[in-house]
Amino acid sequence: MLWAGTRAGVAPGKEWFASEHVLAILDSLLRGLDRQALTRIGRLHEHARNDLAGAPYADLELRLMGWSVVSAAGVPDLSLGGTRYIPPGLQRWSSAITSALTHRARMSAAQVTCLADAVRSVLPQLEQVLNEPVGRCGS
Fold first, then answer.
1. What are the distances in angstroms from CA 54 to CA 10, 20, 51?
2. What is the rounded (10 degree) CA torsion for 106, 110, 111, 116?
3. pTM, two decimal places
4. How many CA atoms lie within 13 A of 31 on its CB side?
């Protein structure tokens, strides 16, 4: 299995990448954030998915990661984009977000809020972005 040979949250090949439009949305969310903010997103994500009290987030994150494994909804290795520092958790969070954008119709409003709440202190606009329609690249 190709997925087993990659780091968590890294799509194993281009055929597993989310659409260009979805990847552009992820880029727009992360653009302009400094190293401290990126580190905070990674830490908040890791804390939420490992916190026993945060079981709804952990369950949702696993579902999103599963959807990214079985469909074109993942992200390439972020370090290949020229970024030398990828904080722990950011790669996996990014894949969860692209999966959520790709499969938004399968998610409830409560799940969207749950996903956004984990990083709301850094990305207060995430819930709104997740609730906006995702068009096709070029449309």
1. 24, 31, 5
2. 130
3. 0.88
4. 6
